[in-house]
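DM between two lab members

TW: hey, do you still have the DNA lyase entry open?
JB: yeah, one sec
JB: this one, 295 aa:
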Amino acid sequence: MPELPEVEALRDFLTDRLRGRSVSRVLPLAVSVLKTYDPPLSALEGGTCAGVARHGKFLDLEVGDLHLVLHLARAGWLRWQDQLPTAPPRPGKGPLALRLWLTASKDADPAVGTAGFDLTEAGTQKRLAVYLVREVTEVPGVARLGPDPLADGFTLAVFRGLLTGQQHRVKGVLRDQRVIAGIGNAYSDEILHAARMSPYLLAGSLSEEQTATLYEALRTTLRDAVERSRGFAAGSLKARKRGGMRVHGRTGEPCPVCGDTVREVSFSDSSLQYCPTCQTGGKPLADRRMSRLLR
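TW: and the structure you got?
JB:
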């Protein structure tokens, strides 16, 4: 799933290519992708893109007075093409969910197509979402977002206030978009590893020192990931994300800090990875799902 660093890199990538360009056509190809109906997608035609913004994991394409808001969810992705085919694709069972064409530049040959992008989604769980709204806060997921962790106003005092009274595990709190916007399963693992902290600790029980350590790990981990991704084409961002992970997705591999084996806890629809030596005092965390399977 693309998280804050990848979505921020996509924002930069698209800003360079969309700003000042006009939309020629937008065609949804998957029944599930479009979540709004008023205004219609045809209202984008002829509109000029003023810029691209990011709200947590949401991309916001500002076209005229409208906002085309994209949420890539778990298996969605954006594929830029300098020359999209002029003929519309046929809806089918493939991964293509939506296509957006730009108007041709003055020196372009219209016979070979114009630039634009495809939204694709792999797998059977279709969660990719596209909204066309007049105000970005009309998107429910955006309206519910907590503060952005890389914003200048996201201070240690703000972070401490978000954790105060939290009775949930710190891993879940970091992932809760209503608390902090943009962090998902992968970067919450990375942040907790950098902070040398168990994902099972209660967020509201952290000491002032632990909170300060977690805050620094959060900001540093996300900033470093953004810098690793900046300047790369959209198609290479997934690989950049995987290559930068120290524990997430590396079950069974040695921890790059201490050399202990990275372990995993499985849940119904996800898993977390951690280093016992760095994060839990050498003790493996209980994996109830695996324990049930082994009975």
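TW: got it. The first strand starts at residue 23 and ends at 28. Residues 290-295 have pLDDT under 50 and may be disordered.
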